[in-house]
Write a structure and sequence with these properties.
The chain is α/β, with parallel strands linked by helices. The chain has two domains: 234 residues, Adenosylhomocysteinase-like (Rossmann fold, 3-Layer(aba) Sandwich); 150 residues, NAD(P)-binding Rossmann-like Domain (Rossmann fold), CATH 3.40.50. It contains 18 helices and 15 strands. An eight-stranded mixed beta sheet has the order 9-8-7-10-11-14-13-12, with helices on one face. α4 links the parallel β1 and β2. α10 packs across α11. Pathway: Amino-acid biosynthesis; L-homocysteine biosynthesis; L-homocysteine from S-adenosyl-L-homocysteine: step 1/1. Its EC number is 3.13.2.1. Its cofactor is NAD(+). This is Adenosylhomocysteinase.
Length: 457
């Protein structure tokens, strides 16, 4: 319903060309249509019911205002679930300005609801590349407003401030990043000695890796493909490029539906896991002519090249489940001899001179958030990974001088466990408590953390 409502607008006027105000008279936002706010508010309220951890965090910390004085500039997907995160940060005392990290994943009605409630939000579904950077700059470049925290998904916001506003970047107290791509870019800055602020790597927390990357993708890959192609999965041959947590989730879902799944992988450990899970490990060149679907999940670039695209069979479906749109070489398809035909929202047929066509989804951008929705409860855990985001922001913002150097840090295991514990009441689940004798035997505090930071569940 959200997707159809978002796509139903006949207004082709760019939001940048509109003069809009919310009911309080503020125009410090740029969304598709502020009149959609009431519909978006209902979506946010529904999401709140399925997000117990963030709501519990909001209730527990609201009186303390641990983010009072924090000025957070954020760049994430703008959905009902992330709206709950943003409003939680506001309830904890933060001032926020927000842009979208993906040009297709914004729910226009949710952005409108946030703008109506006073959040400076600059995002709409279907932004151009120029719009994307304009929105980020409108969040950052504001007279009399100096951000002191960054919440990023993909690293684009961080690098925009780093390159365009170096003096502003030096005054940032901390960065929280939750994507493979963004974390990789932070480690590159750190290695080059150019990271002058501490950063928290939320992506490699167990709650993010398992609940967002694995379980969320396991649920949403089928939904994204169904909504865009109406296909059946039984008997289809699929190649999944990458067997990290995202790849594992995609493979599990497709195998359960009766698909024949191949895996490509560069890491021998992940490769061995794929083999032990019953998947055939191949090189992409070996199966590219026969597969019905190609899915990238690597975080790398040019995983699917023009050569691969030329050799695909007629009607092969090509899509990406990684954050970045670099995995499929879409730019190589924008040549005069190929014809692009938009058949429905986020679905393009790219047609070769001989009549062969491939089905490209979301122009190679993130499939599940561009073409469908993701399960709200899983995103609650993510949104408590977003609560992990919130906790990471609280930790970095309130950390005493010197606790964190100019480096990239993993989310502390204690926080990871706390995020998980906030969700257990939803399942009527009851943790076993260590006795004093057992805690002493294991050398643990009875209240955790129960695993060392290096331990991966």
């Amino acid at each position: 319903a959200a997707a159809s409502y978002t796509d139903s607008s006949d207004d082709e006027t760019s939001p940048r060309d509109k003069q809009q105000k919310n009911s309080k008279g503020s125009s410090d936002f740029c969304v598709k249509n502020i009149k959609q706010a009431e519909f978006g508010r209902r979506e946010i309220e529904i999401a709140e019911q399925e997000m117990p951890a963030l709501m519990a965090l909001r209730k527990r910390a609201q009186g303390e205002k641990p983010l009072a004085g924090a000025k957070i500039v954020g760049c994430t997907h703008i959905t009902a679930q992330t709206a709950v995160l943003m409003e939680t940060l506001g309830a904890l005392g933060a001032q926020c300005r927000w842009a979208a990290c993906n040009i297709y994943s914004t729910l226009n009605e949710v952005a409108a609801a946030l703008a109506e409630s006073g959040f400076p939000v600059f995002a709409w579904k279907g932004e151009s590349e120029d719009d994307f950077w304009w929105c980020i700059d409108r969040c950052v470049n504001v007279e009399g407003w100096q951000p002191n925290m960054i919440l990023d998904d993909g690293g684009d916001l961080t690098h925009w401030i780093y390159k365009k506003y170096p003096n502003m970047f030096k005054k940032i107290k901390g960065i929280v990043e939750e994507s493979v791509t963004g974390v990789h870019r932070l480690y590159q800055l750190s290695k080059a000695g150019k990271l002058c602020v501490p950063a928290m790597n939320v992506n490699d927390s167990v709650t993010k890796q398992k609940f967002d990357n694995l379980y969320c993708c396991r649920e949403s890959i089928l939904d994204g493909l169904k909504r865009t192609t109406d296909m059946m999965f039984g008997g289809k041959q699929v190649v999944v490029c990458g067997y990290g947590e995202v790849g594992k989730g995609c493979c599990a879902a497709l195998k359960a539906m009766g698909s024949i799944v191949y895996v490509t992988e560069i890491d021998p450990i992940c490769a061995l896991q794929a083999c032990m899970d019953g998947f055939r490990l191949v090189k992409l060149n070996e199966v590219i002519r026969q597969v019905d679907i190609v899915i990238t999940c690597t975080g790398n670039k040019n995983v699917v090249t023009r050569e691969h695209l030329d050799r695909m069979k007629n009607s092969c479906i090509v899509c990406n489940m990684g954050h970045s749109n670099t995995e499929i070489d879409v730019a190589s398809l924008r040549t005069p001899e190929l014809t692009w035909e938009r058949v429905r929202s986020q679905v393009d047929h790219v047609i070769w001179p001989d009549g062969k066509r491939i089905v490209l989804l979301a122009e190679g951008r993130l499939l599940n958030l561009s073409c469908s929705t993701v399960p709200t409860f899983v995103l609650s855990i993510t949104a408590t990974t977003q609560a992990s985001r919130a906790l990471a922001l609280i930790e970095l913002y309130n950390a005493p001088e010197g606790r964190y150097k100019q480096d990239v840090y993993l989310l502390p295991k204690k926080m990871d466990e706390y995020v998980a514990s906030l969700h257990l009441p939803t399942f009527d689940a009851h943790l076993t408590e260590l006795t004093d004798e057992q805690a002493k035997y294991l050398g643990l505090n009875k209240n955790g953390p129960f695993k060392p930071n290096y331990y991966r569940c």
